Each structure stands twice: as structure tokens, then as C-alpha cells.
Amino acid sequence: MTGARNFNILLRLWLTVLFAGSAIAVLPPYIVACKKNEPKFNECIFNTIEGLREKLIPGIPELEVPPLEPFELKNIRLLRGPVGARLDVNLTNIEVKGPSSFKVHNLKSNLKDNTFTFKLTFDELSFKGKYQMDATVLLLRLSGKGDISGNFTGYSSDVILRGEKVLREGVEYLNFERMKLNIKIGVAKVHLTDLFGGDPVLGTATNEVLNANSALFLEEIKPVLESSLADLFTEIANKITRSFTYKELFPDK
After folding, report:
1. Where does 83-139 show beta strands of DSSP type E?
2. 84 FRET partner, CA 20 to 30 A, in 121, 199, 229, 242?
3. What is the pLDDT of residues 60-95, one digit of tens each?
4. Helices (DSSP H) in 103-213: which residue ranges?
5. How far is CA 251 from CA 15, 28, 41, 156, in A?
6. CA-wise closest residue to 245 among 172, 184, 187
7. CA–CA separation, 10 vs 195, rounded Å?
């Protein structure tokens, strides 16, 4: 009887430890809980973001987090000028690479209203896609279609990410509003193929003119980039916070 009683006690202890351990180990190893009273709370959030970077590139299927790159932009239409000096360019199938090079600076968090502000920079964003152009420059007709490629450097954005607690089955979760971006792009370079039937001289000259006036191109692509990146990063953030409770992510102790 004594042996059976001791066995039952040991079994209860083992089950207690097993279930207690499973309750504590809710978060996967690539997500670190940041305690509310953590003296270096902002640093903890920053380190968690950095630790997630490699997982975000291919996506996190178990959390339904989409791949960070490449991602596609919506069609972009650049239509400027009167009939005699018209520029009409339609860009489609635009694929962007480089978001995984993001760096977070000056992160400030406020859990009272669940607001996070920071500066986001990228080493470089490159893109490729298809173009169709119909333009008149100095009475010269430019018409054609082909591949377009390019890159942005000196890219940065001020970011505001606002969240609110929501109840699901009586448990609090964090849900973010759509991220707000204010993009600044230092330099943009573009290259179009098959201009003038692939003529190397006229094609090169036209690309030089387009790059010299890249501000027009930036004006059109900037809001599309802002919108697409805001949607992507907000979706990633919400996929993660919907998978874990508020207390699991930000425990009191």
C-alpha cells in the first residue's frame, strides 16, 4: 500500500510539472515575452523584432504569417503633361525585394495606449516588372513595352503603430490599426528594356532622361509603396499578436 501511495504521489507531481511546464512554454523560442516592468522594455521589443527577422523572410506557416519578400505592388500608372509633351507609363507585375533588410531605430513604446513609434530604414529596395509606355518628349514619340527594373536607396520612414486590446472568448489580445508610414526616398534608379526596338543608343539616352527626372516617378510610386508596406507589416504584426494572448506577450512579472 505504501509503495502504491508513493507512486500516486510521484505521478501527481510529474503531471503537475508536465502541465505547468506546458502552460509556461506557450511562446515559441523565436518570440520573447517582454515584461511590463522590464527596465529595458524598448530594448526587449527591439531584440524580439531582430530575432524574428530570419523567420519572417520565408514566412511563419504555423502562425499564418506571409513571407516578407518578395512582395508585389499594385499596378502603377504615371500620366503627366499635355498632349504635345505627354508621359504615359503603365507598370504591372511589380515584384519588390529588400524589405528583410529593414532596421528599426528610436523605438518608443507606450503600453498605456499600446502605441509604438520608430523609424524604419532599408539598405536598398529593388524591383522588377513590366512596363508599357506612350510618351511624347520634344516632339519625339516614345512608345514601347518591355521589362523595367530599378532600386531605391536612402530609404526611410517614420512609423506609428497603434494597437488596442480586444476580447476573444473572454481573453485579451492585441490588435493593431493599419500602420502609418511617411516614406522618404533618397535616390531612385530605373532601367527600361526594348526602347526603340532595342536600339542601344536611343535606349540608353532615354533611360538617362528618365533617371534625371526620377522625381516624377517617385511621386507616383511613393504612395503605392507606403500602402503596400503598411498592409504587409500590419498583417505580419496582427498574425503574431492574434496567436498569443496579451499577457503571454506582455506578462506583469
Report:
1. 87-97, 103-110, 115-122, 125-137
2. 199
3. 999 999 888 888 887 888 777 666 566 788 889 999
4. 200-212
5. 24, 15, 12, 32
6. 172
7. 80
**Position 157, amino acid:** S
What's the pTM? 0.77
Rounded average pLDDT over 203-220: 77
Q: What is the chain's Cα-based Rg?
A: 26
Cα–Cα–Cα angle for 142, 143, 147, rounded to 5 degrees: 110
Distance CA 89, CA 207 (A): 13
What is the Cα 25 distance to its own chain's centre? 28
Highest mean pLDDT among 78-92, 125-139, 190-204, 231-245: 231-245
H or E segment to which residue 10 belongs = helix 2-24
pLDDT, residue 34, reads 92
Cα distances (angstroms) measured from residue 55 to each of 49, 67, 89, 123, 155 = 10, 9, 37, 19, 23
Is the alpha carbon torsion for 138, 141, 145, 147 positive or negative? negative
